[in-house]
Amino acid sequence: MPGTCVIGLQWGDEAKGKLVDILTANHDIVVRYQGGANAGHTVVIGAETYKLHHIPSGILNDGAVNLVCPGVVLNPPTILQEIHGLQDRGIVFTDRLMISDRTHVVFPWHLEEDRVLNDRPVNGENIGTTLRGIGPCYRDKVGRSFAVRLGDMYRPDFAEKVQRIVEAKERILTGFAGPDGFSPLNADQIVQDYQGYAEELKPYVADTTSYLLDAVEQDRRILYEGAQGALLDLDHGTYPFVTSSNSSGVGVSPGSGIAGRWINCVLGVVKSYSTRVGGGPFPTELDDAMGDRIRELGNEYGTTTGRPRRCGWFDAVAVRYTTRLSGVDALSVMMLDVLSQLPEIKICVAYELDGERIDYVPSHSDDLRRVQPVYETIQGWEQDVTGIRALEDLPAGARGYLDRVSELIQRPVAVVSVGPDREQTMFTPEFPLGD
Ligand code: GDP
Ligand code: IMO
Ligand code: MG
Question: 365 and 281 in contact (C-beta within 8 Å)?
Answer without folding.
Answer: yes
